[in-house]
Design goal:
26% of the residues lie in helices and 31% in strands. It is α/β, with parallel strands linked by helices. The strands form four sheets. It has an eight-stranded parallel beta barrel with strand order 6-7-8-9-10-11-12-13. A four-stranded antiparallel beta sheet has the order 5-16-17-18. Helix 9 (280-292) links the parallel strand 12 and strand 13 (298-305). The chain is globular.
């Protein structure tokens, strides 16, 4: 038997490759000139840029032993993560509360921006979390952190389970912000888990890999559409969700929170609604998403209600139905297995405390756009 071997040769201008798994995409981008030269490159009239790319494809023989090793795969048994959802500005009705209490609901993600009506929003979140019988994951964007924290600390109570510390307008946290806030949280509110990272893509963490040892967890957001919006891309990018977790484990053993998980990238706030949100396709996508995010301790899936939620104006969406099915089974582990053609059909296997297993299959239609 033969395998295909491809040789790619470059000449002329310097090329650079970008590993887009940093953005949860299963792809690479190669371009010139490198962005560090700097970006953008100024090309004046009359400048000459020479480039040449040569691709050679041929057969490569391999041994039976190599083939056997390549296809070996051991089943992995990984603890099922804590699942929560993001709060939005829409009020929760009694119907919403009733439906949300029927599914796994570990935490209610609430974002605090001190330039908004944040006190009113936090008080509403407290009331809703009490009705939902869940805790808050507080994501706080600090700027003038001393005065802002002093305001916040007056309103902190035992409903807050975790605090995600972020710096407004930047991907790198000023160490003095940690120096001020972390000791005060530890002393006054010792039950609160403290984390940091980014509200955006994993790349912000991977560029520095500077993890303060005082943190309890590392957090980043995930989306399958950082670059392209097509349905087949959403399927292809599922596999890439596992790689940031593997990378973090190479330099940190802290708990990993992936929060929030959204269909659309949040880089462009006016373009965050995806019309596929309330479809069977996204329910299947979400099920397989759980498989590839196995290893994270904490996932925040979508919003509770609305156009980006698990409940829409007509009632529970297919994603909600999936979560209800999972809740009724009460899984303790994800059994991570390999499938032959994941772009066509994939599956996630769950195991409960009795050792019973439930398999959820996703059949992806070919030709999706």
């Amino acid at each position: 038997p033969n395998q295909v071997e491809a040789l790619l040769e470059f000449e002329g201008d310097v090329f650079e490759s970008e590993d887009q798994r940093n953005w949860s995409d299963s792809s690479y981008k190669t371009y010139s000139t490198p962005v560090g030269i700097p970006f953008p490159v100024i090309v004046d009239p009359g400048d000459v840029v020479e480039q040449k790319v040569r691709l050679s494809v041929g057969n490569k023989s391999f041994t039976e032993k190599e083939d056997r090793v390549a296809n070996e795969f051991n089943e992995q048994r990984i603890p099922f993560p804590a699942l929560g959802y993001t709060r939005n500005s829409l009020p929760l009705s009694e119907f919403h509360i009733s439906m949300l209490k029927q599914i796994i609901f570990d935490h209610y993600r609430v974002e605090i921006d001190f330039k908004t009506r944040w006190i009113e929003q936090l008080n509403s979140a407290y009331q809703e979390s009490d009705e939902l019988n869940t805790n808050l994951e507080l994501c706080v964007f600090f700027d003038d952190y001393i005065s802002e924290f002093e305001q916040l600390r007056q309103l902190i109570n035992t409903q807050i389970k975790s605090l995600l510390i972020l710096q407004k307008g930047g991907s790198v946290i000023d160490p003095s912000l940690f120096d001020y806030i972390i000791p005060r949280i530890r002393t006054e509110f010792p039950w609160i888990k403290i984390g940091s990272g980014t509200n955006n893509h994993f790349v912000d963490i991977n560029r520095s890999r500077i993890i303060d040892p005082r943190l309890d967890f590392i957090s980043y957001g995930a989306t399958p559409q950082a670059h392209l919006p097509f349905s087949n891309i959403l399927i292809e990018n599922l596999e890439a969700f596992q790689y940031p977790i593997t990378t973090i484990r190479s330099f940190s053993d802290k708990n990993i929170h992936i929060s929030p998980i959204t269909l659309k990238a949040r880089d462009y706030p006016t373009h965050t609604i995806d019309n596929r949100q309330h479809t069977e396709f996204i329910a299947d996508w979400t099920a397989i998403c759980l498989k590839y995010l196995a290893g994270a301790s904490h996932l925040t899936l979508f919003e509770t209600i609305g156009s980006k939620g698990i409940i829409n104006e007509h009632g529970p969406s297919p994603v909600y139905d999936l979560l209800k099915k999972i809740t009724d089974f009460n899984p303790k582990f994800i059994i991570k297995t390999k499938v032959d053609f994941p772009l066509e059909k994939d599956k996630v296997i769950l195991e409960n405390e009795k050792g019973d297993r439930m398999t959820i299959e996703a059949v992806f239609k070919t030709g999706l756009k």
